[in-house]
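Running co-folding for NAP.
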Amino acid sequence: MKTRKLRDITVSEIGIGCMGFSHGYGQIPPEDYSIEAIRKAYDYGCTFFDTAEAYSPNLQGIGHNERIVGKAVKDFRKDIVLATKLHIHTEEVGPDGVYPVIRRHLEASMERLGTDYVDLYYLHRLNLDIPVEEVAGAMGRLIDEGLIRGWGLSQVGVGTISAAQAVTPVSAVQNIYSMVERDVEKEVIPYCLENRIGVVPFSPIASGFLSGKITADTQFEKVDDVRNWVPQLKKENIIANQPILDVLADFSARKKATNAQISLAWMLHKYPNVVPIPGSKNQERILENLGASEVELTSEEFQALETALDACTVHGHRGFEEQQGGRMKDWDREKK
Ligand SMILES: NC(=O)c1ccc[n+]([C@@H]2O[C@H](COP(=O)([O-])OP(=O)(O)OC[C@H]3O[C@@H](n4cnc5c(N)ncnc54)[C@H](OP(=O)(O)O)[C@@H]3O)[C@@H](O)[C@H]2O)c1
């Protein structure tokens, strides 16, 4: 598969989000199936795997997903880029500052991942009690010590990114981005392009909406399924956003591709520093999503798609700036 750079870290131009093997999209698959899925993705050419310490069933406990990913990649770990994330809770930070806290989280993640370094280590959510500059300083130390190759931030705006960047250059920003969540196009992506920072869109298929496989009658699972609160998956928004799916269906028919592939090919065409990490619990869909790398849009096709999308109003909005303990559930608060 073609590659891209997240600052100095080379990755396949599409990665996979591993969260669904542990959390967030209802019933999780048997572990053997998830491990096989990750290995099939690697065999296909994927070299970028995204996890987090918080991804565990029902967000109880910690590290379920990292353990699965670690087992899956053990035979090719050195050939891939492993990205994981941490939360820092205010009460963890003592007089020695944030460095020992981050190091403790990192060492626990490395043990679960079966590795002695992490390629890309993200702060999962900004904690407003802890200045991002301090986090950046600690991440810089971990880079100097060879424990991480680069670091990143998630769900942040340019003010936070630039404050962090001034202390330790940022490799990647992982914010929500898809055809129906485009706020990052205004400032975040231009800033990142200018500063050699990769943008790693999460939920690039809008939690499945853009695949066209979800209808207003789709019932989501009651437990541990984020689709119950994803704005575009509210019944009324699924109905109101149909024109976007019609645009996608038109292009997927023309390009003999699937809706999900077109939604990924669109962002790959639009920005050279964007590396989406679609998530799926299904082996066929994982390969389908990676196959978007082979869907080339010409400039004319891209422009026509862009114009058609611009003519649609998007219903339902989440936005990209979130803090720990804020509007969103505090992902690993219930651990241990
Ligand atoms: N930094 C953060 O705060 C944050 C937040 C959320 C997610 N993430 C990361 O980003 C990754 C991706 O995000 P996401 O999983 O929320 O969103 P996503 O990739 O937009 O969508 C995942 C959903 O779409 C469905 N889907 C995926 N590919 C499909 C296809 N080709 N056809 C039909 N349905 C398809 C999946 O169902 P099936 O499983 O049934 O295929 C799943 O329900 C996660 O795995 C995680 O690693 C990070």
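Result summary
Residues 103 and 109 are 10 Å apart (CA to CA).
Residues 17-20, 25, 50, 154-155, 174, 202-208, 211, 213, 260, 277-282, 285, 288-289 surround NAP (CB under 6 Å).
Job closed.
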